[in-house]
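User: I'm putting together a teaching handout on how sequence relates to shape, and I'd like one worked example. Could you take FAD-binding oxidoreductase from Caproicibacterium argilliputei, show the sequence you're using, and then write out its predicted structure as tokens right after it?

Assistant: Happy to. First the sequence, then the structure tokens directly below it.
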Amino acid sequence: MSSTADVLIIGSGIVGSAAAYYLAKKGKSVTVLEAADAVGNGGSSRNGGGVRQSGRDPRELPLVMWGIQNLWPALAQELDTNVEYVQKGNLRLGKTEAHLKTLQKLTDQAVACGLDVRMIDGDEVRAINPYLSQEVIGASWCPTDGHANPLTTTLGYYKKARALGARFITGEPVRSLQKRRGRICAAVTPSGIYEAEQILVAAGCETRELTLPLGVDVPMRKKKSECLVTEAEPPLFAQMLGTAEADFYGHQTAHGSFVFGGSTGLEPFGLTDEAFPASTSLSAPCTCRGIMKYFPALADAKIVRTWAGWTDASADGIPVLDEADGVPGLYLACGFSGHGFGIGPAAAYSLAERMTGGTPPVDLSPFRCTRFRAKI
């Protein structure tokens, strides 16, 4: 079997599906290859749904701010899909003076980038969210942050891309990439060869093993992320939540259940050869103990399911969004380090602009792949 397209995308998560849509919208023929049997089966269907600016690395802020200002507000209408986008702010919580110091540093960096975010004390925190316990002594508050549904957002991009002619092939793992005269030209799968003038690898943790044989190395590792979902509860709050140490996050969904993620400290020590990592008996109880300290009112909420997924954690904590050095036509979107959902639409839009000769809306140089080179 052989197939030819203008652009070949490897990976059908939020970035791959969104890039397929934006490229097809520009008239490109697009084929998307997905190793799993379902679209968005990686981190894009296993995350907390945050669409936030606060708490980010300053290098990411211009891109995610642009996306929240220009893409997210009208995304449901554009995709004809209820992405459940709610823009009711983000409280990043602190319980100790050390936490407040961390939050103040992040706030100062964000303000310097033009973000509307400020520190507030415990009383103002509880004025915004009265369900928080007295243990919370302060927080950073960003009123333009929010959350959305990762499943429906990814599905919306997939459906719209297909409507514009993009071809999605699931159960089709890419085994290798090929060059011709120094330029990327094809992807090899068990079924055959797919040829394209440009290839975008947006395959999460699998990106590195595909590009290494071509001499392109993005230093990153697998890190397990786990979340839990509660039964539906009466509406309590609309904000996205996080903490100074990034060990707890979550929100209440449109139908009433809560989606919460947490950290046990054991995430780096999992079995990285698992294709689909399993939740463990350690994670949910650890997260629940944290939840009860922040939200005593949720102490009796029942957990209905948990999930786990791989995070492609880059060496410096921000993604690579770039044409691969030394391999013309090969583009990378990887290393999102656990916060790729909210920035995903803007990242995909920007790459589509660059791949079609346009100008991305913000400077992408902080995300260049050559930044990991040793300095001599």
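A couple of points you could highlight for students: The longest strand covers residues 303-314. The chain has a mean pLDDT of 93.
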